[in-house]
Amino acid sequence: MQGHPSAISAVVRTLNSERTLSEALRSIRLQDSTLQEIVVVDSGSSDGTLGIAKKFDCRTVFYARDRPFNYSESLNLGIAETASDLILILSSHMVLGDTGIVRKMRDNLKYFNACGAYCMPASIPRNDRPDANTVNPTLITVVHSDIYDGHNGLWNCCSLISRSCWEQHPFDTTLPTVEDQEWALWHYRNTNLPTVCIRNAGVLYLNPHFSDRKYIRDRVVVATRLIPSQGSWRAILGLLLEACIAAFDRRFRIARRTACLAWELARQRFWPRNYTSKYY
User: In angstroms, rounded to a whole number, what is the distance separating the alpha carbons of residues 88 and 106?
Assistant: First the structure.
């Protein structure tokens, strides 16, 4: 579709998301930047997800059930259905706790001539939410190839991207995850456009399914597909040292997660695993 030069469209991916979707969509509707539309890309929900989307006047498109799910393909499908030059990508378990978040991303994207901007979420218990505007001052980092580490390029849980940049390079459907990181890296290398990271903007992360498995999988894919040095023996030994230090400090969950990451990276060198996209 032809982009509208001043409008913003939102794309939200869903799968049995009724637990958090209402809050996510309500927070989009309350933004002080007018959104032209909200497109929900559903991957076969069997709960009340579709009814919630209809309640908030969203347009729903459906991911084909006869194909394996892929994060990038789902996003590309939703973005292709929009009609704006700026695309807000929001996970169904994210809540915009400040009515000016989309405006902040838009203004920073334009000011720094970036291909995308994103907010790092705060993981806050659902029944213990401080005022998102008073927790900490907002911090802004312009990310380019010199400081890119494989994990700070773009986060599609809450991002705003330029449609023209997406048309130059849609999200890579050969990746099972970290499609946002690959997209940012491609633009650093090919268009020299940065991304903008916004911290403490008031975005809340409510994913009830997040696990260490996803953390490990994402980092393994970065090491095997984007930054090979992160899967080197030197990097693996460094992770084992970090795990030992964490265990000594009695931070046992971090120690276990780091040791498992080191093991998975080592295993990939001998018995590569083909990951697939998966909702957690």
Answer: 9
In angstroms, the Cα distances linking 135 to 43, 130, 261 are 35, 7, 32
Distance CA 132, CA 135 (A): 6
> Residue 280 in 3-state DSSP?
coil
Q: List alpha helices for the chain, DSSP H.
A: 18-29, 49-55, 71-80, 101-111, 163-168, 179-190, 212-221, 233-248, 252-270
Residues 177-215 pLDDT 10s: 999 999 999 999 999 999 999 999 899 988 766 678 889
Q: How far is CA 199 from CA 137, 143, 179, 202, 240, in A?
A: 8, 13, 21, 8, 29
CA distance 133 to 135: 6
Strand, coil or helix: 58: coil
Axis crossing angle, helix 179-190 with helix 71-80, rounded to the nearest 10:
70
How far apart, in whole angstroms, are the C-alpha atoms of residue 167 and residue 80? 9
**pLDDT exceeds 50 at position 216:** yes
Backbone angles phi, psi at 242, to 5 degrees: -60, -40
Q: How far is CA 118 from CA 68, 115, 124, 158, 195, in A?
A: 27, 11, 18, 6, 8
Please give the DSSP secondary-structure letter assigned to residue 228.
G
Q: How far apart are CA 11 and CA 113, in angstroms?
A: 22
- Structure confidence at residue 209 (pLDDT): 64
Tokens 């330029």 -> residue: 162
Residues in the chain: 280
